[in-house]
């Protein structure tokens, strides 16, 4: 058991399969930078508190920096028999500087060590994703502004049935609003996890005269965690990260679905760039929206990572249990997945071409201005419910005879209601419909311009 840092009480060597099952080094080596940062802060504090001699602190710190340099250079040998990142680093330190390395773990446990490493990682990941979310928001805002110049009109849908015409810019601004909240959720999570568990030790704290405020500050945390059991036993910081990531993933998945749908031959609203689509190995004509489809499908793993960790945590008694080693891979995966999808969309959206003639024609179909006709009657004093009934009858008449509302005869319209006429029906253009929706947050060009300006101000 010489390679084990905990081998003292064991007489028999660890079973090979157990070693494989138990080890986390294959994935937690990703925490090496955070692990060594944590150790450097810890050992410096031990020196300041008079727990270690200055020369011991120096030898350990120099040794840790040497190990870090090896890891960065890619020459470090990660050993499965050393189980995890923490024991690989510590054992390598011992190989380098001898038995004094054993003093590093004074007043510390792997339980608070892994908790502090993982919080450092997750906090940085949350802030980085927040920045990337902001980048995509900036891109979508620029698209909104670009299409506002020509006031491009698209169909707005409910139930995926044409509902009312809207500005394409208004559609973009809906995603800008969602992404703003996504960024906020990530930053909120980062702020709440900004506490250092280091010094919680195994679970109960430590008899050593440590300074947890000093290590928290040295590691850039706002403060130490207030309860040692909570410090080593809680993973809701990771759950919040995964939850914010899952919601962001759901938004990106909805966006993907719309892009896929609108790029079909049947819709023909937009053309995705060649650089972000792929072909078929058998059908020469194909141009498939693989990026958007993968981005839609990635929601599965993002939700899975959240559900997975919720399930791991739910039945574990306080404080640390080895179950918690299952906390890391999902966080790494959600971080990597969202990073690439956010970047891809930030590149793809500005290269996507919208076909304004097609979208406008589609926006006019499906009796999308029927509400406008009902509003016209209501403005003339007809109760809205009655107006709704009258226009519903006209839509039925028109659809049975394969016509649009503006193709109805003057007599048919007057018979439905004396306030109606062919002139009125013809004035119901999609442009007028959009222009009329002046309510705050509505799709009228002036309102969308306001929204764009407010979003620009929020971003600067
Ligand atoms: N590799 C472990 C993990 O990721 C580190 C903590 C181990 N602590 C323990 N008491 N076995 O959770």
Strand order of the largest sheet: 1-2
Question: Which CATH class of the largest domain?
Answer: Mainly Alpha
List cofactors, ions and other ligands.
arginine
CATH fold assignment of the largest domain:
Fumarase C, Chain A, domain 2
- Percent strand: under 5%
Largest beta-sheet details: 2 strands, antiparallel
CATH architectural grouping of the largest domain: Up-down Bundle
What is the element string, with H for helices and E for strands? HHHHHHEEHEHEHHEHHHEHHHHHHH
The tally of domains stands at 3
CA(first)-CA(last) distance: 58 Å
Q: State the shape.
A: elongated
InterPro entries: Arg_succ_lyase_C, Argininosuccinate_lyase, Fumarase/histidase_N, Fumarate_lyase_CS, Fumarate_lyase_fam, Fumarate_lyase_N, L-Aspartase-like
Subcellular location: Cytoplasm
Protein name: Argininosuccinate lyase
Domain Argininosuccinate lyase C-terminal: 367-435
Description of the molecule:
By secondary structure, the protein is mainly alpha-helical. The chain folds into three domains: 7-106, Fumarase C, Chain B, domain 1 (Orthogonal Bundle); 111-205 and 228-360, Fumarase/aspartase (Central domain) (Fumarase C, Chain A, domain 2, Up-down Bundle); 362-445, Fumarase/aspartase (C-terminal domain) (Ribonucleotide Reductase Protein R1, domain 1). The chain is built from 20 helices and six strands. The chain has helices at 16-22, 25-28, 32-48, 54-73, 85-97, 110-149, 168-192, 212-218, 228-233, 236-262, 290-297, 299-314, 328-348, 356-364, 370-379, 384-400, 410-416, 422-426, 430-436, 445-459, and strands spanning 153-158, 161-167, 195-196, 223-224, 270-271, 353-354. It has a two-stranded antiparallel ribbon. A two-stranded parallel ribbon has the order 3-4. Strands 5-6 form a two-stranded antiparallel sheet. Helix 8 links the parallel strand 3 (195-196) and strand 4 (223-224). Helix 6 (110-149) packs antiparallel against helix 7 (168-192) and helix 10 (236-262) packs antiparallel against helix 12. The longest helix has 40 residues, at 110-149. It is elongated, with a radius of gyration of 31 Å. 41% of the residues are buried. The mean pLDDT is 96. The structure holds arginine (ARG). Residues 24, 28, 84, 110-111, 114, 320, 322, 324-325 line the site of arginine.
């Amino acid at each position: 058991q010489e390679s084990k840092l905990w081998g003292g009480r064991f007489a028999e060597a660890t079973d090979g399969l157990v070693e494989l099952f138990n080890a986390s080094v294959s994935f937690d080596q990703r925490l090496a930078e955070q692990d060594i940062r944590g150790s450097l802060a810890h050992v410096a504090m031990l020196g300041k508190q008079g727990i270690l001699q200055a020369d011991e602190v120096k030898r350990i710190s120099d040794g840790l920096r040497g190990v870090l340099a090896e890891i960065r250079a890619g020459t470090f040998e990660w050993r499965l028999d050393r189980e995890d990142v923490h024991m690989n680093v510590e054992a390598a330190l011992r190989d380098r500087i001898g038995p004094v390395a054993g003093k590093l773990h004074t007043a510390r446990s792997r339980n608070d060590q892994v908790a502090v490493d993982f919080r450092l990682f997750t906090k940085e990941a949350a802030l980085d994703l927040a920045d990337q979310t902001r980048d995509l928001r900036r891109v979508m805002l620029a698209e909104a502004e670009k299409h506002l110049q020509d006031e491009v009109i698209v169909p707005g849908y409910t139930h995926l049935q044409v509902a009312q015409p809207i500005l394409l810019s208004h559609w973009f601004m809906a995603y800008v609003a969602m992404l703003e909240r996504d960024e906020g959720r990530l930053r909120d999570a980062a702020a709440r996890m900004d506490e250092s568990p280091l010094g919680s030790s195994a679970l109960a704290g430590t008899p050593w005269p440590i300074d947890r405020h000093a290590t928290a500050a040295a590691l850039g945390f706002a403060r130490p965690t207030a309860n040692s059991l909570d410090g080593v036993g809680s993973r809701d910081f990771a759950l919040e990260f995964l939850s914010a990531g899952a919601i962001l993933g759901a938004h990106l998945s909805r966006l993907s679905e719309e892009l896929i749908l609108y790029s079909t031959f049947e819709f023909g609203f937009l053309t995705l760039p060649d650089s972000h689509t792929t072909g078929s190995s058998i059908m020469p004509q194909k141009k498939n929206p693989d990026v958007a489809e993968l981005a839609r499908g990635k929601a599965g793993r993002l939700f899975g990572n959240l559900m997975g960790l919720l399930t791991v945590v739910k039945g574990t008694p306080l404080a640390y249990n080895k179950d918690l080693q299952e906390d890391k891979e999902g966080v790494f995966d959600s971080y990597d997945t969202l990073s690439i999808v956010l970047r891809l969309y930030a590149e793809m959206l500005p290269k996507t071409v919208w076909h304004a003639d097609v979208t406008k024609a589609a926006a006019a179909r499906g009796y999308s201005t029927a509400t406008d006709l009902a509003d016209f009657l209501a403005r003339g004093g007809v109760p809205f419910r009655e107006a709704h009934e009258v226009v519903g009858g006209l839509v039925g008449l028109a659809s049975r005879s394969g016509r649009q509302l503006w193709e109805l005869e003057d007599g048919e319209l007057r018979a439905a209601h004396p306030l109606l006429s062919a002139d009125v029906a013809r004035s119901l253009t999609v442009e007028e419909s959009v222009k009329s929706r002046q309510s705050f947050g509505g799709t009228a060009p002036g309102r969308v311009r306001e929204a764009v300006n407010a979003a620009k101000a929020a971003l600067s």
